[in-house]
Amino acid sequence: MTSDAEKARLRRAVRASLESVTEEDALGAGRSVAENLERWPGWDAASVVVAYSAIHGELDCGPVIRAVQRAGKKLLLPRMRPGRVLEFAEIRDLGMLRAGRHGILEPVAGCPKREIGEGTLLLVPGLAFDRRGGRLGRGGGYYDRALAVLPGPGRRVLRIGVGFDRQIVEAVPMTPLDVRMDFIATESGLFAAGSPVAEGAPGSGSPEKPLEDEGRTTEE
To answer: What would the pLDDT profile of 6-33 be if each residue is shown by its tens digit?
Structure first.
């Protein structure tokens, strides 16, 4: 089976597993992720957090956004541009969001675009993740393209895949162009992925491990 076929099969399986997710499930899991992040030393070391506006079936990022605001950190959210390009813009409050493509909330045009640099925690949604940092998106390639041009590990941009426990799989099909996550965050905890940068998180020791071992636009 080719990598594309394996990805398509996995997308179908994970989407089916997410059909039963309720708003209450998503919010409860989002609160757990926010609490885990706030207890992690790497949170204190970060000056910028890139969050996202969740769609149905994704973990609610609202609690993390509120934690960012309480901590006085700079908050960025993605904004779609022509050509399937994803840029990141700074917002000061949720009133600066509007429904964009596919009805997903994104920063209004007046919100300034920001480059991702040192001291940033980048929260990345996806359909599936594995413990080596593999990530499977929704097929549109928005995040894949954005991640590919971010600064490398030396700039301390930490990529944190965010999802439910049920989205953790044994192995995500990866190509040489796919970008791995440095950490994975679920409702059970925050754990370092199999990436060299995971051992050098800004200001961190070993993050919490999940309590149990291993389970966007619609195109992202």
So the answer is: 999 999 999 999 999 999 999 999 999 9
Q: Judging by DSSP bridges, how do beta strands 74-81 and 85-91 pair with one another?
A: antiparallel
| CA neighbor of 121 nearest in space, from 176, 64, 177, 63 | 64
- C-alpha radius of gyration, the chain, whole number: 16
Asked whether the beta carbons of 186 and 166 are under 8 A apart, the reply is no
The whole-angstrom separation of Cα 194 and Cα 172 is 13
User: Which residues on neighbouring strands pair with residue 78, listed in sequence order?
Assistant: 88
Q: Answer for the pair 121, 158: CB distance below 8 angstroms, yes or no.
A: yes
| Pair of tokens at residue 148 | 């590919």
pTM for this predicted structure: 0.82
CB atoms within 10 A of CB 184: 29
CA 170/CA 155 separation, integer angstroms = 29
Q: Which domains does the chain have, with CATH numbers?
A: 3-219 (3.40.50.10420)
Reading the block at residue 37, the tokens are 């992040």
φ/ψ of 219, rounded to 5, equals -105, -10
